[in-house]
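agent> Task received from the user: take the single chain below, predict its 3D structure, and emit structure tokens. No templates, no multimer pairing.
agent> Plan: (1) validate residues, (2) run structure prediction, (3) serialize to tokens, (4) report one or two observations.
agent> Step 1 OK, no nonstandard residues flagged.
tool_call: predict_structure(input=
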Amino acid sequence: MTSPGVLLIIFFFFVILAITKPLGLYMARVFEGQRTFLHPVFRPLESIIYKLSGVKEEVEQRWTQYAGAVVAFSVAKFAFVYAIQRFQGLLPFNPQGFSTAHAAMGATAMTPDLAFNTAVSFLTNTNWQAYAGESTMSYFTQMTALAVSNFTSAAAGIAIAIAVVRGFSRAEKKTIGNFWVDMTRAIVYVLLPLAIAGSLYLVSAGVIQNFDAYTKVTTVEGGSQVLAQGPIASQEVIKMIGTNGGGFMNANSAHPYENPTPFSNFIEIVMIFIIPAGLTYTFGKLVGDTRQGWALFAAMALMFLVGVFIVYHYEQQGNPIISKLGLTSAPTATQSGGNMEGKEVRFGIPGSALFATVTTDASCGAINSWHDSFTPLAGLVVLFNIMTGEVIFGGVGSGLYGMLLYAILAVFIAGLMVGRTPEYIGKKIEQKEVKMAMLVLITTALSILGFAAVSSVVHFPRDGYWNAPGPAVANLNNGGPHGLSEVVYAYTSATGNNGSAFAGINVNTPWYNLTLGLAMMLGRFLYIVPLLAAAGSLAAKKRIPITEGTLPTHGTLFVGLLVGTVIIVGALTFFPALSLSPIVEHFLMLEGRLF
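)
tool_result: status=success, residues=595
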């Protein structure tokens, strides 16, 4: 590792640390219904939304009503996004003439299975893309279906996290808030102001924002090239702030139109982490003890720092096979050394390693380098980051409620060791809460490992479609342990609602589009519904006093217990799959053999 690279990572961490408290305090005031400095500007908009939608701001919901509202909203949004994709050829702002079956200019047909996959992807905040945006989606689809979904799916995640926090902060209450109010406030007071400020910066940095038709230019060699255009800055900023990750371009944040400079790269990484980090302080503020929030932050930060330095180390170390060929892999004054395959020169290894770690920590599918080209153990880290349940800061909202799930398990394990009923934030953790937590873990593990196992042995027609001519062949991806990594990563990313991909695998087939879509729904709804059930149960309980036998949940001991629970549960669940993919690939690389 180089000194500039280490300093970049440390500086990034301290920027996030500095933002956490003020943003967390602001969000606590927003979701408590208190006045903020932005109320004079955005309160009229909030009031208009309630009036037009018929929402009564003062009426709260039981957990069943809250969960029902989440599901109903998701069903309606799925239908909306699916319909726009299927009928985009008839809708405006489509200068390229993309349609459901358009094949000119290298365009991808928007088939029913691809539209299904994309609609599910954007409603679950996964933003997995089995298509190239610039050759598939019209401007209208990008704006009204995808960018709008980036706001609403992120806001839904924040709302659910706040509802779960109310389960701990309230006592003897039957309600946990109002989903429609929480989601509206998340959009109006949190996501919208950040998106406006962020998009203005991105435009100033060189990210384009227009409705022009694609431009045909002549290159310096005399050839011709078509340059994609479009309203990119507005979608880029919410994909980062909302930890969505769906890129306007196929190259995502490696494309200079989405991420033009090293400084824009740094700002975009900061965008990914600010809300998940801030919500930890919001949690502490709402439960009446900010030390509880800082404990969650510390656990997340510890896992993030360990992960990013492992990735950076192995990427900077490079491939030993290359070194054996007599080529220099150490950094010098004239070249970066290490593993630069699949990376942009303007970001280098530190900027790429930091981006890859942050995006897989935070359930954001944005990428600025190909994870498929990472060294095996660096690839293992970004894969394992998602396997933890996206709790290392995690997505907006989902990181917090995911970590609270692990906190429930941690105090339960501690209670077993000392023979005492587990407690957390003044609430007894009993049978229902533990059952709900275990249901989440079992379901997500079954989705990842089950779909990956079947997809590793099932054969498809040559081009991936059911009625294609020609003999059946295996999955269209690499062979050996690396190919297994690609399949496991795909279902891990889908179930974890991350959206990034290892690449090197063709997933635009009916099998992958449908099964990955199912994995996304399992990872979203069989995660949030049990947690909302646990929140409703906790909110109805009495608050119990702290005694000498109560486990402190704000100190170093609890942070270590929480981190250990996350790592051990992940390791026990996924170690066999990891040992057959990136781990065995690492040892093959050391022997000079690669698949």
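agent> Step 4: summary for the user.
The chain has one domain: 3-590.
agent> Done.
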